[in-house]
């Protein structure tokens, strides 16, 4: 240093400054070491996480076809406004007002949705508006700066046939509910909030096949959440297309018949007795499944749903598998088969007295057809003789009737591939005690009622047609089903990759072995002949006879209220159960027309209408006697009913 | 004779210092380009480097004593710039501070950066007389006044960050002007005790407002601070630095923290975070070492100065630069609160760059004339 100062140690002070500088920068170096070397991985991950987003690509659901390749259900692409929760950390409720105004959504609906989201932390992409129109999309684009958390994405939406055709069979899809997400079986499927799954019908039963596997886009977003680029794209794997056993033409005529019926309520089922394939399954009144897949997230949609739940006609109820009805005289062929099998009657000696009725104790229960003398089993079926079956029932006793119930599995679910099938009610001491506590003892009169399809006999239509089809098949009883085959889908991605989805193989319905009832051929021939005579000779169903196409069937007229009150909406249920051709059956058809009246007058013509279509399709010519004749002879069946009756329609929903 | 002087000039010219400064700027320019690849900031920075080099050479080859004798004129000119910038229409407001003057063709110019040099010159000139005794109160007061005038004007902008970087200039000058050592020790001790105590009292009496507390809390615990509000800058900067790891993040630059706009002000205040992300710990340490060598080189130059004035002007520059480097990088690394202070020689900004080169020019000039007289 060229200059000297006496008052200070300048060299020392300069050194202090120098040391201080090095010291300060060393502090920075240590901190750098901690941030970059010690914790570098952690911060790198945090930085990556904030810029990488996984956006799901919803897989299209498999389409559903009828057996002839007619498309029943498909998906169409719609636009959905989605709120990315990751990009919005504020209070969701502050969005209700601006979004409900901008996108014209009811504020309550939106508030509900946000509440649901609040309770489910896994909700990442919140669908704010489904089926967004061009105006909504433009609004989102125009408000990108204000609401960077919104984006528009294409999503598949399920469309069902309008007018509610096949609604009970197809069911519908809907968002997986919070309750479902809490159940292990749903957790195992890897579902997340907002996912669309089958909630009813075959959509539900075959959901695992129809639902595809979502793909995703891995994108880079900037600090505002705007997508900058796509890093990776895993294509979705579409769900498997499904071919059902349904024949659209038969379904159409079945629904038309029910719609034309006096109350517009009832069931028509057509199935192939040779394998259990359900060709038509109509239950009216019906509903529009599009309500659940498209409109439920709106005020109007919710009101529509509430109205359906409150409707006394119960349109959501699939009457074919969830309704229970007294079978009336359609019970008789089953009794006759069992009576022969059990030896209560024999082919050679099957005559029993009709007597115009029977006296049990001091009470006379009459035969609604008058006095048939002493008919054999063929005549008893043909003329639907109540007196005959009263006595057959008494001979078989309750135990014999129960054996029949077991044989035809009337006390079990049929196992049809639809959800929520209920079990029929069949005669037993316990059941009587349960439903008629004022008179809990089983008496002979109960056996009499139970022997002709009243009293403690309350069946689901599907169980009834299955039993009749078994008689037609000489005792081979199949499980009714709707799935025919599922088409294969190809694999997505590279094997070994964690995102690899293996292809799904095609599959056909896996038929369980038919149950063999062991009915001797000569015995079933007697019953079949009897049912053939119902239509083809002077029986109760003679009005629907088709020359050259042997329909075998049985009418039924089931009381729902005590005699005398059976008018208007409380009229008898009108049944007809049948199969054809009688001795080489191809198709079995059941009709239940609720509260209409005589089986011969309503049930039988409805069934005939189905056969007409079937005949035209398979024989390629107009059915003989195409105009449906009115019934020539009515055979009303009634008796004094029990004091109380088991519930006929179970409210299962 | 002229040739001889020139030859001696070339021999005594502090090449290391100049090349180190140019090297840091070049490296910084590269990082500016990494930070804002689509913008022309890095080109402007190169233009600034050119202007800075010319200014440095001009100052270096001018006798610093002549320049320092004219210090009052420069000082007043600087104050005028600070007044002009306050006039709406001339002064440009950026981030709430009216601290920029628009220069056609080059963008904006921040006078407060430039005035640092004129203030350092003024302080060196005032304290550069031959010294026989310890620092008097009167001298300290005048020193305070010299610093106080520009600070007051800058506070009107109001650019608190810049003001803070002025403080060490005076402190270094006072420290080297024979202030009593015990006063220094006492002042250091007092601030170590009094500042936390004052903060504690302030919190308890609610004199320190909530948002101010938040800013402190962010530094104490950035992990748990609100990363979307007060903690955002610090947290994003820490992420960016940490992501760099040992050798730098290898991701393409269009996925960097700065190009995705997570890191704010990447080319100016947070240029060091960008450097950290792209070059990792190794690159950062090299930058720190470069600064240490640069500053140490300046200090050793000050040791060899032929007079007190020359020594002080260099050390005033050292004080300003060292403090600013520490505050800027400390903020980037999340150990100091976020205040808008550029990193000398690296942050994009003409005024800061040119002013720093002028300051280095002084240091070179002082060294060139160490054998004269």
Question: Which secondary structure elements does this structure contain, and how are they paired or packed?
Answer:
The complex is a heterodimer of chains A (653) and B (373).
Chain A: H1 10-38, H2 40-51, E1 52-57, E2 64-65, E3 71-84, H3 93-102, H4 107-119, E4 125-129, H5 134-142, E5 150-159, H6 167-170, E6 173-175, H7 178-181, H8 184-187, E7 196-198, H9 201-205, H10 207-210, E8 215-221, E9 227-234, E10 242-244, H11 248-260, E11 266-271, E12 278-284, H12 290-295, H13 299-310, H14 319-322, H15 332-342, E13 357-360, E14 363-366, H16 377-383, H17 386-407, H18 429-435, H19 444-450, H20 461-472, E15 476-477, E16 483-486, E17 507-508, E18 515-516, H21 521-536, E19 552-558, E20 573-580, E21 587-593, H22 599-619
Parallel strand pairs in A: 2-10
Antiparallel strand pairs in A: 1-8, 2-3, 3-4, 3-5, 6-7, 8-9, 10-16, 11-12, 11-21, 13-14, 15-18, 16-17, 19-20, 20-21
Helix pairs in contact in A: 3-4, 11-22, 15-17, 15-21, 16-21, 17-19
Chain B: H1 2-12, H2 15-35, H3 41-60, H4 64-69, H5 71-84, E1 91-94, E2 97-103, E3 107-109, H6 111-127, H7 137-155, H8 160-175, H9 181-204, H10 210-220, H11 232-244, H12 271-303, H13 308-332, H14 350-368
Antiparallel strand pairs in B: 1-2, 2-3
Helix pairs in contact in B: 2-3, 2-12, 2-14, 3-14, 5-6, 5-7, 6-7, 6-8, 6-13, 6-14, 7-8, 8-13, 11-12, 12-13, 13-14
């Amino acid at each position: 240093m060229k200059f000297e100062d006496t008052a200070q140690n300048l060299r020392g002070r300069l050194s202090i400054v120098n040391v201080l500088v090095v010291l300060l920068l060393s502090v920075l170096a240590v901190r750098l070491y901690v941030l970059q070397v010690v914790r570098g991985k952690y911060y790198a991950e945090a930085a990556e996480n904030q810029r990488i987003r996984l956006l799901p690509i919803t897989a299209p659901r498999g389409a559903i076809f009828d057996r002839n390749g007619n498309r029943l259900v498909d998906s169409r692409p719609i636009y959905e406004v989605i709120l990315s929760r990751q990009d919005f950390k504020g209070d969701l409720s502050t969005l209700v007002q601006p979004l409900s105004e901008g996108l014209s959504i009811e504020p309550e609906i939106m508030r509900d949705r946000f509440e649901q989201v609040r309770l489910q932390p896994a909700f990442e992409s919140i669908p704010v508006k489904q089926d967004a129109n061009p105006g909504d999309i433009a609004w989102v684009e125009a408000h990108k700066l204000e609401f960077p958390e919104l984006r528009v994405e294409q999503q598949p939406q399920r469309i069902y046939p309008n007018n509610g055709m096949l609604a009970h069979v197809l069911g519908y899809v809907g968002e997986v509910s919070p309750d479902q997400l809490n159940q292990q079986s749903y957790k195992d499927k890897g579902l997340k909030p907002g996912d669309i799954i089958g909630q009813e019908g075959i959509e539900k039963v075959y959901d695992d096949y129809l639902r595809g596997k979502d793909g995703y886009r891995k994108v880079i977003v900037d600090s505002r959440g705007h997508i900058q680029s796509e890093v990776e794209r895993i294509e979705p794997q579409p769900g498997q297309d499904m071919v059902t056993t349904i024949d659209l033409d038969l379904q159409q005529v079945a629904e038309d018949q029910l719609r034309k019926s006096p109350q517009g309520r009832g069931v028509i089922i057509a199935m192939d007795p040779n394998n259990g394939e359900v060709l038509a399954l109509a239950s009216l009144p019906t509903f529009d499944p599009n309500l659940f897949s498209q409109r439920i997230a709106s005020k109007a949609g919710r009101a529509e749903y509430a109205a359906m739940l409150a409707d006394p006609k119960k349109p959501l109820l699939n009457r074919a598998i969830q309704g229970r009805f007294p079978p009336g005289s359609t019970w008789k062929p089953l009794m006759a088969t069992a009576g022969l099998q059990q030896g209560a009657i024999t082919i050679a000696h099957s005559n029993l007295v009709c007597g115009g009725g029977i006296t049990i104790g001091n009470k006379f229960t009459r035969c609604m057809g008058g006095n048939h003398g002493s008919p054999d089993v063929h005549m008893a079926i043909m003329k639907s003789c109540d007196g005959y079956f009263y006595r057959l029932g008494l001979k078989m006793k309750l135990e014999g009737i129960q054996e029949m119930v077991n044989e035809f599995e009337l006390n079990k679910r049929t196992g049809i591939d639809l959800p929520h099938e209920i079990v029929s009610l069949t005669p037993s001491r316990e059941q009587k005690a349960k439903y008629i506590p004022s008179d809990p003892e089983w008496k002979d009169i109960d056996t009499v009622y139970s022997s002709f399809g009243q009293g403690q006999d309350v069946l689901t239509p599907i169980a009834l047609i299955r039993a009749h089809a078994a008689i037609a098949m000489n005792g081979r009883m199949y499980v009714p089903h709707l799935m025919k085959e599922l088409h294969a889908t190809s694999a997505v991605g590279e094997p070994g990759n964690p995102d690899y989805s293996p292809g799904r193989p095609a599959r056909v319905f896996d038929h369980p072995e038919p149950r063999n009832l062991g009915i001797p051929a000569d015995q079933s021939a007697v019953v079949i002949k009897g049912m053939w005579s119902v239509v083809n000779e002077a029986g109760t169903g003679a009005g629907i006879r088709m020359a050259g196409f042997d329909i075998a069937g049985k009418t039924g007229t089931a009381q729902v209220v005590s005699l005398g009150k059976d008018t208007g909406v409380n009229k008898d249920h009108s049944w007809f159960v049948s199969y054809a051709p009688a001795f080489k059956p191809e198709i079995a058809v059941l009709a239940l027309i609720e509260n209409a009246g005589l089986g011969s007058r309503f049930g039988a013509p409805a069934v005939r209408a189905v056969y007409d279509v079937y005949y035209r399709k398979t024989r390629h010519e107009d059915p003989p006697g195409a105009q449906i004749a009115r019934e020539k002879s009515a055979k009303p069946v009634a008796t004094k009913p029990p004091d109380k009756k088991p519930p006929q329609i179970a409210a299962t929903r | 004779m002229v040739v001889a002087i020139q030859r001696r000039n070339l021999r005594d010219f502090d090449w290391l210092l100049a090349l180190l400064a140019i090297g840091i700027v070049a490296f910084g320019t590269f990082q500016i380009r990494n930070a804002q690849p689509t913008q022309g900031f890095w080109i402007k920075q190169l233009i600034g480097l050119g202007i800075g080099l010319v200014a440095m050479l001009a100052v270096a080859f001018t006798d610093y004593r002549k320049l320092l004798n004219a210090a009052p004129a420069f000082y007043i000119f600087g104050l005028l710039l600070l007044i002009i910038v306050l006039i709406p229409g001339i002064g440009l407001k950026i981030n709430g501070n009216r601290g920029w003057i628009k220069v056609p063709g080059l963008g904006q110019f921040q006078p407060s950066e430039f005035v640092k040099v004129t203030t350092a010159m003024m302080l060196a000139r005032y304290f550069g007389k031959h010294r026989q005794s310890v620092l008097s109160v009167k001298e300290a007061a005048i020193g305070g006044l010299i610093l106080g005038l520009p600070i007051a004007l800058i506070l009107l902008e109001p650019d608190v960050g810049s003001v803070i970087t002025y403080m060490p200039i005076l402190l270094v000058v006072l420290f080297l002007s024979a202030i009593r050592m015990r006063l220094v020790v006492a002042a250091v001790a007092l601030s170590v005790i009094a500042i936390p105590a004052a903060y504690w009292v302030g919190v308890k009496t609610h004199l320190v407002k909530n948002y101010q507390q938040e800013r402190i809390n962010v530094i104490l615990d950035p992990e748990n601070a609100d990363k979307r509000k007060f903690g955002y800058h610090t947290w994003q900067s820490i992420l960016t630095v940490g992501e760099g790891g040992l050798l730098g993040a290898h991701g393409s630059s269009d996925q960097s923290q700065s190009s995705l706009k997570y890191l704010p002000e990447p080319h100016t205040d947070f240029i060091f975070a960008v450097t950290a992300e792209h070059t990792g710990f190794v690159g950062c340490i090299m930058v720190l070492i470069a600064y240490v060598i640069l500053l140490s080189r300046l200090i050793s130059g000050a040791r060899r100065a032929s007079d007190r004035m020359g020594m002080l002007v260099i050390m005033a520059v050292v004080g300003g630069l060292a403090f600013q480097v520490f505050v800027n990088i400390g903020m980037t690394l999340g150990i100091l609160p976020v205040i808008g202070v550029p990193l000398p020689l690296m942050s994009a900004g003409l005024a800061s760059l040119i002013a720093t080169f002028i300051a280095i020019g002084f240091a070179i000039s002082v060294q060139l004339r160490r054998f004269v007289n």
